[in-house]
Amino acid sequence: PPAAAPMAAPPPAMAPSGGGGMMSGIMGTVVQGMAFGTGSAVANRAVDSVMGPRQVEHVHSGQPAEAAPQAAAGGPQACQNEFASFQDCLKNNNGDITPCQFYMDMLNQCKKTYN
Length: 115
Fold this sequence. Notes:
The protein is mainly α. The protein is built from three helices and no strands. The longest helix is centred in the first third of the chain and has 31 residues, at 21-51.
C-alpha cells in the first residue's frame, strides 16, 4: 500500500485576551489583599492558641523606671527564642502553618518543660 501523507499540525490555540480594563486589575489586587489578610488572621489565631491571648497592660506611677531583673530559667521569657522562630516562620510563609510545624513542636515542648 502507498504511504499515507503526513498530516499537518493543527494551528496554535489563540491566547485569551489580556483585556478587561482598569477594574479587573484593581479587583485582582483587592482579592489578593483580602486573601493575605485572611491568612494573617488565621496565623495570629494559631499563635494565640499556642501562646495564649495577647494582653498589654500599661501602668504609669510617675516614678522613674527601675532596671528590669534578669529572667530566671523557667520564667516568662523561657521560650522566647522558640516563639520568635515560630513567628518568623509564619511571616516568611505568609501565615501557612504547615511548613512551620517543626517550630510549633519546639515551642510546645518548651512550654511543657518550663510551665
